[in-house]
Amino acid sequence: MLFRSVLVSALLALGACASAPKPEPVDVDVTVSPAADGTWTADYRFGKAAPAWAFARSAVTEADKTPWRAQAWTVETPGVSLKRIGRYDVLSADGAALTSVRIRFKPFTEQLEKDYRPTLQFSDGGQAHYTNQFEIVPLTSAAAAESLPVDVDSETVPTTSRLTFDAPGRRILYGGSVLDGRVVTGTGSGGYAYFGDAEVIETPALAAVIDPGIPEWLRGELDAYTPKLLALHAEKLGPPAVGRPMVFAAWGGADQPGVSLNGGVLGGLMQMDLRGQRVLNPDKPVKNLARWFLGHETAHFWLAQTVRAETGADNWMMEGGADILAVRALGVLAPDYDPTRRLQGEVDDCLGLVGPNEPLAGALERGEPQAQYGCGAVLLLAAEAGLRKREPGADAYTFWRRLIDANREDGVVTADDWLAAFAEATGDAELTAETRRFVTEGVADPAAFVAKLFARTGVAHSVGADGKLKLGAN
């Protein structure tokens, strides 16, 4: 295996170097502790008077669209209830201001809809808890939760907080440090705190905790592919702003058929959860799915963290970019990989989710986030092909490296920045103007626009008698 194990003290800062800050008054002070029976407690102490508090991250389960806290959290403080109001889980006590609340919870490990798993469960008993599941904001009343917008956090509703994981005798990995039994951070810090004794593995490109329960054939693939992938991204895109990334890969077991692969990137951490019966034995499509998934998520250390979109509406640049960079990485590191099916899926998603006169920038408002991936990938394919006509050997990495270098200082790539780079890559002002309309206003015939886009830039494709656009080798 290409990963090599090292002493944790050589990889991470020792706990003594990461001492807890001096306590200071905060609106919410939360202490999370393990119990002997496998449950945990979360003790909330409120420094701000409010009759109700809403959990900022209140996603439903992906499988059955039900609130997950109702399945795993129990309020032990008399007179306090945890109820679903509107989009949010809300703590309240019949109008009285809350002072302290104790919650007992079983770590919830199932996939949520458009959010991170509250807990990653490792097969050796280790667990990684998502800090933002504890983030909470004050309300003027429980009923006020009905009118809260889709995205709420402690910045939009100004709330200071302190989150302490208090687990004496347990080894904790958090924020680049190994700590002995205690972590102090904020409830909205956006990371995972790992509790367990798994081996920490490193290369010059990354550090990782890989679940020993992942079937050996795929664990070996993760060991071999991931460091080469991170090294390639760094070579092509420059150093990531997050420094050396860390990866948590957990095995969720083989209870369900098929394969499930979920995860995401937070700060300098990528987390992933693998599960399903197809993972048990060597399987080339599963291997390529895992490789592509790693490529997409790790690309976000650059496309989202080194530079980010100005608004969520413009995340088509980041998501479509990560999709295509994952494909191009496979082309370098696994030359037998055929990207045609994956790229055709991008075209189909784009044209299936953006209708006549619907702007790509409005995809999130329309409830079609997958359009950002598909159409972002389609536009990058065209930019890449146009650039390659002018500079043989150039690719999506080349296009994005220039955008990153030009915007690394302020860390923001706007849609205008991207479109200016598209204009430079293609040398086609008319096509750039039409692409801008597709993004900001919508076009009357999206399929005709994409066909024209590909024809003018040189993306191999054909249009069938049924009008369907079919990609060639790209």
Give a structural overview.
The structure is a single chain. The protein has 11 helices and 23 strands. Strand 22 (461-463) and strand 23 form a beta hairpin. It is α+β, with helices and mostly antiparallel strands and 474 residues long. The radius of gyration is 24 Å and the shape is globular. The longest helix is centred in the middle third of the chain and has 22 residues, at 216-237. The model is unreliable at 1-21 (pLDDT under 50).
Map the helices and strands.
Elements: E1 4-5, H1 8-11, E2 28-34, E3 40-46, E4 52-55, H2 69-72, E5 73-75, E6 81-85, E7 88-92, E8 100-105, E9 119-121, E10 127-130, E11 136-139, E12 161-174, E13 177-185, E14 192-195, E15 201-202, E16 207-210, H3 216-237, E17 246-251, E18 260-266, E19 269-275, H4 284-299, E20 308-309, H5 316-333, H6 340-353, H7 370-390, H8 396-407, E21 412-413, H9 415-426, H10 429-440, H11 446-457, E22 461-463, E23 469-471
Parallel strand pairs: 2-12, 16-17, 17-19, 20-21
Antiparallel strand pairs: 1-15, 2-3, 3-8, 4-7, 4-11, 5-8, 6-7, 9-10, 10-14, 12-13, 12-14, 15-16, 18-19, 22-23
Helix pairs in contact: 3-4, 4-5, 5-7, 6-7, 7-9, 7-11, 9-10, 10-11
Q: Structural class, judged by helices and strands? A: alpha+beta
Distance N to C terminus: 32 Å
Number of domains: 3
Characterize the biggest β-sheet. 9 strands, mixed
What percentage of residues falls in helices of 4 or more residues? 25-40%
Based on CA inertia axes, which overall geometry fits?
Answer: globular
| Uncertain ranges | 1-21
Specify the oligomeric state: single chain
Number of helices: 11
